[in-house]
Amino acid sequence: MNRIRKGDQVIVIAGKDKGRQGAVLRIDADDRIIVEAINMAKKHMKANPTQGIEGGIVEKEMPLHISNVMLLNPVSQKGDRVGIKALEDGRKVRYFKSNGEVVDA
User: 64: closest CA among 7, 8, 103, 25?
Assistant: First the structure.
C-alpha cells in the first residue's frame, strides 16, 4: 500500500519549490510523482499539425522524487508522516503519525 496516492494534497519539503502545496496528478513506477503546478519547466515543443499540437515554448510539470513531498495534514496544515495499520475488520488504512487520525475512511 502506497503512503501517497493520486489526488492527495502534498507539501514539498525539499528543492526549489519547498513549502508549496499541490495535488498529486500521477505516480510513476520509479518512485517519482507529478504534482500540480510544482517543479514547472519550459519545454520547446515542435509543432505537429496532424495531431493538433502547436509549437513553441510550453510550461509543464516535471517529476519529483516521492521522498521530497509529505502528505498534508488538514488539521494542522503541515506535512505529516504517514503510517499504515490494519483495522478490526481486516482493512488496511493510512493514518497520520502525529495525531493517529485516519487519512482515508
Answer: 25
Grid cell, residue 74, equals: 488538514
Return the C-alpha cell found at 45: 515543443
Q: Is the residue at 85 inside a domain?
A: no
Tell me the HSE value of 33 on the side-chain side, using a 13 A CA sphere. 26
pLDDT digits (tens, 9 = 90+) for 15-67: 999 999 999 999 999 999 999 999 999 999 999 999 999 999 999 999 999 99
Residues contacting 68, CB < 8 A, separation 6+: 12, 13, 14, 15
By C-alpha distance, which of 93, 92, 97 is closest to 81?
97
Q: Is residue 20 a contact partner of residue 88, using CB atoms and an 8 Å limit?
A: no
Q: Has residue 37 been placed in a domain? A: yes
